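WARN no homologs supplied; continuing
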Amino acid sequence: MATVYFILLLVIGLGKGLITLVNKYSPEQVVVARPVRNTANVPAGKTLPDQTAVAIVSAVSVLTGGHGKVTKIEK
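OK structure emitted
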């Protein structure tokens, strides 16, 4: 049982050391901000404030890493 406990502590220590080394020597990713366009498809007869549509499109863009696209906004 002591051997298992020792090996577990060794694995935890090596894992923490690896995380520290990677965080110290790997370059930080640079996130390039892209302009947000109002691509929301609002049905005719209903209005949506531009600020609300831009906020929704921006939130989707941030959450999906720029891969998501807003095609329709419904209440």
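The chain has a mean pLDDT of 79.
OK
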